[in-house]
Amino acid sequence: MDKNEELINLAHRRYATKKYDPNKHISDKDWNTIMEVARLSPSSMGFEPWQFLLIENKDLKQKMYNDAWGAQNSFNGADKFVVILAKKNMTATSPHVKHMSEDVQGHTFDPNSPFTKKVMDFQQNDFDLNTERALFDWTSKQTYIPLANMMTAAAALDIDSCPIEGFNRDNIEKTLADAGAMDAKEWGVSVMASFGYRDQDITPKKRQPMEAVYRVIK
Ligand SMILES: Cc1cc2nc3c(=O)[nH]c(=O)nc-3n(C[C@H](O)[C@H](O)[C@H](O)COP(=O)(O)O)c2cc1C
User: Fold this and answer.
1) Ligand 1 centroid to 215 CA: how many Å?
2) Nitroreductase domain spans which residues (predicted)?
3) Residue 39's pLDDT band (boundaries 50, 70, 90)?
4) pLDDT above 90 covers what percent of the chain?
5) Which among 13, 7, 17 has a CA at the least distance from the CA of 161?
6) pLDDT, mean of residues 144-150
7) How far apart are the C-alpha atoms of 53 and 79, rounded to whole Å?
8) Given pLDDT bands bounded at 50, 70 and 90, which one contains residue 108?
9) Which end of the chain is more exposed for a tag (fewer CB within 10 A), N or C?
10) Domain ranges across the chain
């Protein structure tokens, strides 16, 4: 099989798992690979506006159960349950951007630098990121990149997964904050995902034809 076929098979092999086998566990080696792929994901200007919470605490899962209605299949059997947080209020001069610039990217941070001004202009004018909600949605969007990479990496390792948006954000954030799992002033819940081994057959993909979603503009 050539690489193109392999990639298409992988895309068919990944599916949103509705029934997991609770007796099967992901090896540490495989899980570390999935997390490393998440960590290496690209982000706008390299600011990495995310954190990944692996929820192992059974009581906490129980507390989340009713509010995370789209995750109930996952709670009942997935080996790993991840909540992806997105950074709040990540403006050009915010402490997170300063930290990323200085401690990760190795630049000196200057609020008056041409780079900072460019980020400000991008946020305020190009992308209209002028409310807390718009800023949160922008960082949340970026978390879907590691989410997708994790699911594809899992499929390549023959591990099943499910992306999850079926939850009440306010209630889940309160539950996680009360448990000390997140600082709700700094972070919001963007999306969740589960990983494990299926206890059902993979359903064939139902998708629009290529010509409905892809156009070449000449
Ligand atoms: C952003 C997003 C949120 C989703 N939320 C849920 C969810 O809460 N619960 C669930 O069982 N499936 C969820 N899904 C799975 C979709 O229903 C599924 O991916 C889609 O129907 C296509 O099927 P496939 O992934 O099996 O190819 C979600 C998918 C995405 C991309």
Assistant:
1) 25
2) 13-176
3) very high
4) 99
5) 17
6) 99
7) 14
8) very high
9) C
10) 3-88+132-213
105 close to ligand 1 (CB < 6 Angstrom): no
Distance 192 CA to ligand 1 centre (A): 11
Residues 6+ apart with CB under 8 A from 204: 12
Ligand 1 and 35: CB distance under 6 A: no
Of 165, 192, 194, 200, the one to substitute when testing ligand 1's pocket (max ligand atoms within 8 A of C-beta) is: 165
User: Measured at the alpha carbon of residue 188, what is the angle toward residues 119 and 109, in degrees to the nearest 5?
Assistant: 30
For range 62-69, the mean pLDDT: 98
- State yes or no: pLDDT of 1 exceeds 90: no
User: Distance between CA 89 and CA 139 in Å, rounded?
Assistant: 9
Which residue out of 19, 164, 190, 207 has the highest number of ligand 1 atoms within 8 Å of its CB and is therefore the one to mutate?
164
